[in-house]
Amino acid sequence: MPNVSNVVKSIQDIMRKDAGTYGDAQRLEQLGWMFFLKIFDDREKELEILRDDYKSPLPEHLRWSTWAADAEGDTGDKLLDFVNNTLLPKLKALTGGSDRIAGLIRMAFDDANNYMKNGTLMRQVINKINAIDFNVSDDRHLFGDIYEKLLKDLQSAGNAGEFYTPRAVTQFIVEQVNPRLGETVLDPACGTGGFLVCAIEHLRKQAKTEADLALIQDCFAGIEKKHLPHVLCMTNLLLHGIDVPSNVRHDNTLARPLRDWGPKERVDVVVTNPPFGGMEEDGIEANYPAEFRTRETADLFLVLIMKILKPGGRAGLVLPDGTLFGEGVKTRIKEALLTDCNLHTIVRLPNGVFNPYTGIRTNLLFFTKGVPTKEVWYYEHPYPPGAKSYNKTKPIRIEEFEAERAWWGDEADGFEARVENEQAWRVPIEAIKAGGFNLDLKNPHNADEGPGDVEHLLPEYEKLLAQIAETRVALKTELHRALTAGAGSGE
Fold first, then answer.
1. In this structure, are 98 and 242 located in the same domain?
2. Cis check: omega of the bond before 356, within 30 degrees of 0
3. Same domain for 424 and 471?
4. Please, which residues have CB within 8 angstroms of residue 484's CB and are 6 or more apart in sequence?
5. Distance from C-alpha of 247 to C-alpha of 237, rounded to nearest angstrom
6. Cβ proximity of 313 and 200 under 8 Å
7. What tens digit of pLDDT does each residue of 173-230 get?
8. 271: which strand partners?
9. C-alpha–C-alpha distance, residues 378 and 394, integer Å
10. 461 lies in which domain range?
11. 489 lies in a domain?
12. Distance CA 72, CA 62 (A)
């Protein structure tokens, strides 16, 4: 059996030789739709064995096993011609009546492109992909890990505001929110599907019957704004045993007016890492009530989550420090959150969790809708012994959350078992209101004051800006003097 890790590495090496794929994002987009077709084809082979009446939504000549599986099949210009002029155009126009999977494939290929210009190299890539059998569980699980690495590569090639969420963070959030069989789970900014896959695996551990497993196929939903992460998300779900991942829509969640989300669309659980540090396009904020209007993406998602949770619904999400200490609209959003929901826990993560994509400090917020907050528990997550930050090779690990898990307790009894310690403290709602709904509260047990609070940092920052401005003026003066002198001497 080939080593899956080596196969994926060799595919990337081949693609680097092709003049058409000159960046990580393009290579991953190309790999995205190719892996989608191969994984879907392997899934179909399995379904054909399990179900006598199974009929593929794809015409025979478009199935991966027809045009790609033969190592000696079409190559060079003939292969390129087929992919560019038959395969992709026909998948983009695929019809299947009420067949959900046909509509799903059409949506997946709506914006798909073939960037490869060399048909011989494309044949080499296809043959390498064929070395992985997604019906063999060892291959599938190992590829799941490799796939995660590919997704990380994608995020490092992506735009600001889009960060790959470390697996340890998604797992911890899902475990603490604890979705249960029969509940509906939503990620309104699902990216490549990390939270959804984690929730599905969590629910599978609870399944005892075939009916339980069937329930999991349709209990979740996701929405993703960008085409490539959307295709990768559907591929990820196929890989994790979801037959028809049509519950993941390619759409901008925030483009829909808040009032249009009706009671029937409310969900039991939201787990998500909404994009932060990004701004929505003009006009999006008009979809929200006047008091919550902002173009800050993370803030709008927080308002949306409060709206779409059922009474008693639970949420776990990643938010940046800026939301905790921000004023103006942010204050009004936090006041609404603390009034309408029980914000029972904030886990403060250390710097570097999202390295190398951003150094922004982040927090995990856990709340339940329908009961006002009486107190907020904080837990300051420390670095593991000997570490001063995280990086690509040493990311945050799920084992580091053992202390939080042991401390957590049960919401049903008001978290009575929780105790304050060096990492944990609680703040009554009266103190939060008195502080103007600032949630960026430091650990009172920590003697190390850190870099200081905003009030002390701001004057220092302004002084630095003034020094930079003075230096810039001096440089411009020197440059102007040098240029004038040069012109005067006839040089």
1. no
2. yes
3. no
4. none
5. 10
6. no
7. 999 999 999 999 999 999 889 899 999 999 999 999 999 999 999 999 999 988 878 8
8. 316
9. 25
10. 453-478
11. no
12. 17
